[in-house]
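Lab notebook, design round three. We kept the backbone fixed and only want residue identities now. Task for the bench partner: fill in a sequence for the structure below.
Input structure tokens:
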């Protein structure tokens, strides 16, 4: 009888341990499927602009994914966009501008998209360098926590 009681207690303990482990695994799987998404859109209108600007974008701790999408549209002049990470290392750049004379109508557009999985927390910088630029800059961010 004592052996049966011991065997029953060991079986019960193993069953409980297996149940707790299964619950823990289920919790981990559920946490991996959950995310909070933040979107932000900044629209910058340029009117014969010559002044350089900096936009600071903060990436929070525990960010699972971060996307930065920049779209520009220029009807006159030139525009340079540069992206710098939190260590001040350039992560991308492009320029967009008109090449035709004033007697012709020209509209130039440019895009850059940056996607990061589990990025380092910190402040990223978007530098905008216009040369007599008239147009618009759209900076769109998507953060997954």
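Proposed sequence:
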């Amino acid at each position: 009888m004592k052996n049966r009681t011991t065997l029953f207690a060991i079986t019960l303990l193993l069953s409980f341990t297996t149940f707790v482990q299964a619950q823990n695994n289920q919790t981990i799987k559920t946490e991996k499927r959950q995310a909070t998404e933040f979107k932000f859109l900044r629209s910058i209108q340029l009117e014969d602009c010559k002044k350089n600007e900096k936009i600071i974008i903060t990436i929070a701790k525990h960010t699972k994914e971060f996307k930065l999408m920049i779209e520009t549209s220029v009807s006159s002049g030139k525009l340079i966009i540069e992206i710098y990470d939190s260590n001040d290392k350039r992560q991308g750049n492009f320029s967009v501008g008109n090449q035709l004379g004033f007697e012709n109508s020209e509209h130039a557009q440019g895009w850059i998209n940056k996607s990061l999985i589990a990025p380092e927390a910190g402040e990223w910088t978007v530098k905008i360098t216009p040369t007599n630029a008239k147009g618009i800059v759209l900076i769109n961010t998507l953060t997954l926590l």
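Keep this in mind before ordering anything: Helices lie at 2-33.
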